[in-house]
Amino acid sequence: MILDVTCPYCEHEFKDENEDFEESEQYEAECPNCKKVFGYSISISISTYSCKLPCGGQDGDGPHEWKPMTGFPTEYFQNKCYCAHCGLVREMTESDNIKEKTVCVEGLNV
Ligand SMILES: [Zn+2]
Ligand SMILES: [Zn+2]
Question: Is residue 56 part of a domain?
């Protein structure tokens, strides 16, 4: 693996090659600019993001909160919707379409 290291003496940035390294071990490198030897350690951070799934997840019974999908090509996403919580994708059913249309009609009447 090629690592980007910065020399603590002259702030020269260069690439150091380090095969099978261990996280939080200290390694030494020689700066090609000022020729000083310095130590560096590697930190790998994997972060996760958690969110609530009120619908019970992709295998849950729901209720899923369906949102129409948009994207390109439009024909591909046209009849698809996804759950805003768990990301489950399904074909939009006829009842979903009717519901959308009803909302539009109501809006016009006001
Ligand atoms: Zn240096
Ligand atoms: Zn869901």
Answer: no
| Domains held by the chain: number | 2
Alpha carbon of 80 to ligand 2 centroid (Å): 14
Distance CA 49, CA 42 (A): 23
Tell me, in angstroms, the distance from the centre of ligand 1 to residue 16's CA. Answer: 13
- Which pLDDT band, with edges at 50, 70 and 90, does 96 fall under? low
Query: Is residue 31 assigned to a domain?
Result: yes
Note the pTM of the prediction, 2 decimals: 0.44
Distance 6 CA to ligand 1 centre (A): 8
Q: Which two tokens stand for residue 102?
A: 């009803």
Parent domain of 91? 66-109
Distance between Cα 46 and ligand 2 center (Å): 25
**Across 57-61, 71-75, 102-106, which has the greatest mean pLDDT?**
57-61
- Which ligand is located closest to the Cα atom of residue 12? 1
Residue 12 domain flag: yes
Q: Exposed/middle/buried for 66, CB within 10 Å: 0-12, 13-18, 19+?
A: buried
Q: What's the average model confidence in pLDDT over 99-104?
A: 46
